[in-house]
Each structure stands twice: as structure tokens, then as C-alpha cells.
Amino acid sequence: MHTLIKQFIAGKDASVLTDISEQDYRKALGLSQSSLKDFLTSPAHYLSATEEVQEPTKAMQVGTAFHALMLQDNPLAFYAVKKKVDGRTKDGKEYNERFAVENVGKAIIDSEDEETIQRMRESILRHPLARELISKITHKELAVFGTTKDGNVRLKGRLDAYCEEEGFIIDFKSAEDASPDGFKKAIFERRYDLQNIQYPWLIHNAGKKFTKFYFIACEKKPPYAVGVYSISENWLTYTADVWAKAVYRYSDCQKSGVYPAYSDEEVVL
To answer: The whole model's pTM is what?
Structure first.
């Protein structure tokens, strides 16, 4: 656990929930790392994102199905495979209507997507280190909440997987490029490094052991190559500073009710 995080934001009011649904987790009060990414663009972007109802894209649906396959005992309770039918015909129209009713709330994918995520899972389980880490998981989709010491900011996270005995966290990522260079670029562009700060903070704040954060990345095309990655201490020290400053700024925005966009002054680039 980074001393920088302990120094900047000591926490309190921790809670750990092992059986909360994704829908209830999303509704629960707390600043998630994904919302923090919007906030880092600007507070105004964060506010806009919270007011926007976003329909899940195809990529998001496939990602949900992939995570269900990796983490759930009954993954088909979380996703459904839709046949390709001609919706202009009577049979096709009836099928579409029945399918929509029977699978409300689930991620919807097609048969090609299902084959892809099945192949990804098989590839991950063939990877020696990934398989070893997965075998040690004690908690899946663990929701953790905590409040900063000043009581101003409630933070939350939903960990893909956690090993309580050894204290490590796993996050599964589907990737276009799971090579070291490719995934490093993805971490930088998508700010996966924020997870590597916020989730350990939440776990530490809840009084649980934390030792390491692993990303298990798998490509979505043959040969479904897999990489297991962690982020260097130097990189995380920088991210910890960014994270802590963002949380403090978020607290200021909450108190003032002002969520500005970019600077009102000239910025020299």
C-alpha cells in the first residue's frame, strides 16, 4: 500500500459486500474509478456523464458476457445468445419479442461473440500463471466502499477477483493487443492505473490484506494471446498523486456545487 495514499487520504466507514448485484452497486453512493476518469477530463465532463443514460454498446455487452463467463457459476444468468433471424417475418418478429422479454437485464451477444469469449476463457486457463492465480480466488465481484477521513468523499469499487489469504486483486481485461507494449498503451489511454490505486485503498481501508494487483489480459482474436501484468512502483507513485489530487478536487466541487470544464485562463501547451 503506497505511503502516499495513506498520507493524503486516510479512510473510514468501510464496508465490504460479497453479494451485491451490479445494478445495485451502480446505484450505490460512491465515486467509482470509472467516474473518476470522467472527472479527470474535467468536473463538467463528470457531471455530464452522471446525467446521461448510456445504452450499452456491443463491445460493452461482450465485455459483460466475458466477465460473467470468467467469474460466475451460472454465466447464462447474466448474458444471453441471440440467434440471427429476419425480423421482418412473423416467426422472426415473434422470436425477437419473446427473446427481449425472457432476457431483460442481461447482456445480449450473438453466437460468434459467444465462441470468442469461450476461446478467451480456454486460453486464459491454459496460461500457467493466470490459472494459478485464478485457482486461489476467494471472492468474486467483491464490492468495497469507504469514506475519506474528512467525511467528504465516498469511494467505491467492484473488484473482479480477490484472494483474501494472499491479498492480491485480479482484474480481467479483454484486449485488442495484449502484448506488453500494447497493454501498456491501453493502461495509459484507458487509465486502468487508477484501479490499481483506488481498489487497494478500499481494501486497505476495510482492514483487509493487500499485496499486489494483477491484470489478466486476453486478446479477442486468434490466437487469443494472454498476458499477466502489474504496474511498476514508479508509475503507481505518479498515479497515486493524480488520484489523491482528483479526490480532493472532487470534494471541493461537491462543497461548492461548481463543476468547471477547462481553464478560464490562457493555457500554454
So the answer is: 0.90
